[in-house]
Each structure stands twice: as C-alpha cells, then as structure tokens.
Design goal:
There is one protein chain. It is built from 8 helices and 6 strands. It is α+β, with helices and mostly antiparallel strands and 245 residues long. It has 2 domains: 87 residues, Arc Repressor Mutant, subunit A; 99 residues, Nucleic acid-binding proteins (OB fold (Dihydrolipoamide Acetyltransferase, E2P)). Strand 5 and strand 6 form a beta hairpin. Helix 2 runs antiparallel to helix 5. The radius of gyration is 21 Å and the shape is globular.
Length: 245
C-alpha cells in the first residue's frame, strides 16, 4: 500500500474536499480503519453517486460526494457497533446543549416485532404504483440470446446507508437476483465490463419469481461507472467549448 498521506490526498481529491475538518476526518478514517477499507468505502460512495446519490436527512438537497462518503462510513461503523471509533473520527454525537428530537409518545420497535406490526395494518394495505430497483456490482457468467442477456447476482453483507431508527435483522440473508437485460442495452456495456475495475449499474423494475425463489429484475437502463464518468467529462468539455464561443 502507499503512504497514508498519499491515500488521504487521493480520497480528498476524489471527493472534492479541501477544508480542514473533512481532511482531518479522512485522515482518521485512513489511519484508524485502514487504507484498504477507506478506499473500499470510496468506491462504494462513487458507485452510490453514479446510481443517483443520496439526499440530505431532511431531503431538501442531494449530498455532496464527501457527504455520501462520510454518511456511508458512519453507517458501516454503526452496523459494526464501533461507537468509540465513530466518535474518534467524527467527534461527539451531540454538541453541548443539543438534544435528540425523539417522539417519546411512540414505542420503540425492533425487527423481531415486524410480524405484529404488519398484523396491525391488516387489510389496510396501500398500493405501489411504481417499483424501481438499482443493482451495482460486478456480473458473473452472462448468458446471451438473440433478444436479451441473462445474468445472476447475489447480495449479502451490510445494507446501504439507512436513516437512523430503521430496524434491520442481526444477520442479513443472501438475496438472489436474476437480471434480464435487452440485447441492445447489453452491447452498450459488454465491452466496458472487460475492464475488471469497472462496475455495472443496472436500473429497472422487479418482481418476485416464486418458481425460482429469487427476485427477477427487468433492466430499463444499464451503464457502468467508467462510462458515466466518460459521459460527464464529455458534457463538461462541451459546456466549456460553448462558453468560449
């Protein structure tokens, strides 16, 4: 691995961070969590941004690349229950005199109570008019046919960043996805994925395939991390060229 200072500078540059506070937090992440882990979180943050990013807690605006990175770091450390490490990196959770805004009139619920909570809803279930799903990762073997390509992906391990308070199981199951991609869309990303460092990004809709006990994903848009970066760079160059005319 490189010297810590090099990794810190690399992450800061990728996130566009130059202020003292975020630079200090990046330094703590690299030195306390390790270079490999810090870079892994950077890749996750970049993939999250490429897939549409995250919004701030109040939903008023999108998070910056640095905001996404720090949010993911906090989330992973919370899942690992590394409270002291969170405080070492980000400081105390509350400033002096600040109080958590909690509705104490409502009971706290856990993942284990979900069946009871669902039973309380009974027949008063709502209706989803649209379903969207995003898969980000590396594909394995792909089966190509004249009209579409089929691949399978599994997800296990930690969940992405979730708002505070949402209950999750202590042990996460492995979720299987069978992905159907139109042939025209697949050709667009097939060559790019020959680069082992590139990441596939699939957006689509999903159904539960009861026969195969997996989630079937029908892709509506397919790209890769590097293709998106190339497109953004091209758009930036075009905007600069128009500005000089």
């Amino acid at each position: 691995m490189s010297e810590p200072a090099t990794i810190i500078a690399q992450i800061a540059s990728a996130l566009g961070e130059s202020e003292q506070k975020p630079l200090r937090q990046i330094e703590h992440i690299v030195t306390r969590c390790g270079q490999e882990q810090a870079l892994g979180w950077l890749e996750e943050a970049q993939a999250t941004e490429a897939a549409g990013g995250l919004r701030t807690k109040d939903g008023s605006r999108p998070r910056t690349p640095g905001g996404i990175y720090f949010f993911l770091v906090r989330q992973h450390l919370r899942e690992a229950k590394k409270w002291q490490l969170i405080e070492d990196i980000f400081g105390p959770p509350w400033s002096p005199g600040q109080e958590a805004l909690v509705d104490t009139a409502l009971p706290i619920a856990t993942w284990a109570e979900r069946r009871q909570l669902q039973a309380e809803i009974g027949d008063e279930c709502g209706k989803a008019t649209n379903v969207k799903v995003t898969l980000i990762g590396r594909p394995g073997k792909t089966i190509e046919r004249q009209n579409f390509a089929l691949l399978m992906m599994t997800h296990s391990g930690s969940l992405p960043a979730l708002p505070k308070g949402i209950p999750v199981p202590d042990k996460l199951p492995t979720t299987s996805y069978v992905v159907y991609i139109g042939n025209k869309q697949w050709r667009k990303v097939k060559e790019a994925l020959k680069n082992p460092s590139d990441i596939l990004i699939i957006e689509g809709t999903q159904i539960w395939d009861d026969e195969y006990q997996a989630i079937a994903v029908f892709a509506t848009n397919v790209t890769t991390k590097l293709l998106q970066q190339r497109q953004r760079e091209q758009q930036k160059q075009e905007q600069q060229a128009q500005a000089t005319q």
